[in-house]
Known about the structure:
By secondary structure, the protein is an alpha+beta fold. The longest helix has 19 residues, at about 1-20. The chain has helices at about 1-20, 95-105, 130-140, 150-165, 180-195, 200-215, and strands at about 25-30, 35-45, 50-55, 55-60, 110-115, 115-120. A hairpin with a 3-residue loop joins strand 1 (about 25-30) and strand 2 (about 35-45). The strands form 2 sheets. Strands 1-2-3-4 form a 4-stranded antiparallel beta sheet. It has a two-stranded antiparallel ribbon with strand order 5-6.
Amino acid sequence: THTHTHTRRRRRDVMAAEELYCKGTRVWLKDDEAVWIVGTVSDPPSDDQLAVATAGSTELIDVSGGTDAFPPLCNPDILVGNDDLTNLSYLHEPAVIHSLEVRFCENKSIYTYSGIVLVAINPYARLPLYTPEVIAQYSSAEQDAALDPHVFAIAENAYRCLFREGRNQSIIVSGESGAGKTVSAKFAMRYFASVGGAANMTQIEKKVLASNPVMEAIGNAKTTRNDNSSRFG
């Protein structure tokens, strides 16, 4: 009985794979230099192999391990570069990397949503995204306004929930060394200081931001990517 069940399940998997991986389907293949490259299925699955054409060659991929052995599928071009990764048809490593690359290189955008999470790419350059005018834009916008992804949008949502629900809010800033955690935290604090409504906003902002170097002075570490890696970002 177990053998028959396994055979039926495998037959269903093969039929589903033949529908998804038909000739002309674009897939992602791992590459030693580019990490991921796009290939095109030249022949549908046959004899536990999938033929995928890349630039100048054809690779035969062993798919005998079932559906997990098949290469990740590419998203339709119309979805690539969307400002929310959860809108992608296929949400996997190459799809995420490629979509972020398109937004950063072609759309000049360092911020992308993934549901309620904000993904930020460190541009290693100063950008005009944090001016008082931009703060005013996000602080005065309606809750469902279609604004671009931004750390100010995350801060504004926390600020509104704090006053609407009267409950403490937390913003978790995570990432590898040198990713820009400390800077992102500073921009969030700058936003809170600016929308707080105090008479002397400049002095409050300075006091809030001044707390970060004090904390960093007693706990930083050197890493391979950052000589001054914050432990408190």
